[in-house]
Amino acid sequence: MDKRILRPTPLNIVALLLVIFGLILAFIRYTQGLGAVTNLTDEFPWGFWIAFDVMCGVALAAGGFIIAGTVHIFNLKRYKPLIRPAILTAFLGYALVIVGVLLDLGRPWFVYHVLILPQFHSVMLEVGLCVFFYFLVLFLEFLPMWFQGIKNHAAYKALHALTIPLAIIGIMLSVLHQSSLGALLTLTKEQLSPLWYSPNLPFNFLLSAVMVGFAMVIFESQWSSKTYGRAIENDILKSLAKGCAIVAAIYFIWRMIDISMNGGWASMSPGFVSTWFWIEIIVGAIIPIILLIGPGQSNPTARGLGAFLVIFGVVLNRLNATLTGMIDQMGGMYFPTWQEIFISIAVVCAGILVFQAIVQTLPIFDEEVKEAEAAMA
Amino acid sequence: MSTYAMLNDLTKCIGCRACQVACKEWNDLEYHRTYFTNTRDNPPKLEAATYNRLEYNYLPDTDPALPQRWYYRRHMCLHCEDPACVAACPVEAFVKTEEGAVVYDEWKCIGCRYCMLACPFTIPKYEWKSWNPAVTKCTFCFDRIGAGEEPACSKVCLTDAVIFGNREDIIADAHARIAAAPDRYQDTVYGEKAVGGTAVMFLSTKDITLDDFGFRTDLGEASYPSYSWASLSKVPYVAVIVAALMSVIYFITHRRMPGAEKK
Prior knowledge:
The structure holds 2 protein chains of 2 kinds. By secondary structure, chain A is mainly α. Chain A is built from 16 helices and no strands. In chain A, α10 packs antiparallel against α14 (about 300-320) and α11 (about 235-260) runs parallel beside α14. The radius of gyration of chain A is 21 Å and the shape is globular. The mean pLDDT of chain A is about 90. Chain B is an alpha+beta fold. Chain B has 8 helices and 10 strands. The mean pLDDT of chain B is about 90. The chains are: A mainly alpha, B alpha+beta. At the A-B interface, α1, α2, α4, α7 and α9 of A face α2, α3, β6, α7 and α8 of B.
């Protein structure tokens, strides 16, 4: 296997250039203020960075706690080959969320105040602390891979002993903050369309995070097996696809019931907002359920597409619940500037580059893990 | 120390804007270059350097015999008794003082702007152009109150449209004004009960409904923090239940079956 830290493929070069461009835009944002690069206003104080970098980022990094729970707690050992890639993705995912938060906060230099001046009645504090501590947990779950890579066996063994407690704490923190991201929006009752607003938003966010956690693991396994020319773990991905489709079906049925209970159907009128709602439901839920349970059971491409559409659906759900769903009720109209979008793209590109660099240098995939473990024994 | 309150009597306001000017003066806020718009409001909206704004409402003539009817409504922080911004803030940057003011400390603020989303009256504004931005809003002139003075806006009011005092006295005064002229006033003191009560209250005219005046009559009487507290108070239980459940599942799935091969 090619052991260079980063392979100079055209895509990687483009990604690197985008990261450099993003750094320049970030410099302007930190010196000239949020108003210089964003379309945020007093009427629309939260925009694309909260909706995409934070809301979507946290949801898409759910694969870590899903697979950790499946393998370590439920003891389904055949999923073990997926655990390191999933933990690594979640670790980098939360790192990107934190970068996104630091870009969006008006005074990021005071972010440590959440530790020294906590206000315990704040949902925002709960989300902030859970994300921070879960990031620490993921770091501790990632460190063994690092120690194995640099052949520090004593440190590896010491941390490895913490696997189970870390998995339990990780699941607890994930359940709390995945749902609290929904709770953050429960006080936007007056602003958010009832197609998304619900007193059950915390539960909706948790359920869709579980669903997209499965989808991310499927998508990422298939993507990396293609990129690195490894064999697809076909039979375990098949069962994961089934699990994903079942959760997605429960989510779909529950959303329909939930919307009926909140009077969302009555409020719906044809237009921009309801169009995005139907794209979210049909393309992001119904079609992938069919793909994952039907052709996806035998055809890896259909399975990959199904997983991708679930991811698309959850990304759209978070964007809709934070931005699109508020357009009708808020005084102002908001659409992100190109700078907001480019900085977000740069953050994602940085994550993809770091992921590749780590995969190239540390034992992450099954064959290398087995090699490394054999070398240690 | 008693809790203070302020009453805005819309039937007495003559729209002189002295309160706007006094607010800018006392808080040392930047002035705007004014410009012609299709309303008489100026500045046109609350923003980082405007804590207090008069909205001009002209009622269409229904009876030509009557004089032209103008009503002026003040937009400012209502200083809720149990404020949503205080509960939303993760770092205690907002505090409800014992005098009744809701005040903000920019040296605690991390800039998450959740207060702006949380406020049912959309009052907090942001310094979008600053590299080190702060949230801004009416301070209830808590520096003046602390020195035994009343806020700048009520101090300069010529017609007693804005009065300041102990909350109980202010509420009693408001109801006395309604009782003295029941054909003139709406029979409500807006802010006495809305969102759990506010320190800044309004008396409005019978000529126009509170809704038409833009007052949020749909907010209910429960305080906003009680909504998020409903889910937040469950957090410790959820944490313990999830951790316990996972531990139990772990021990069930990992117990050694009799006769199972050793690893």
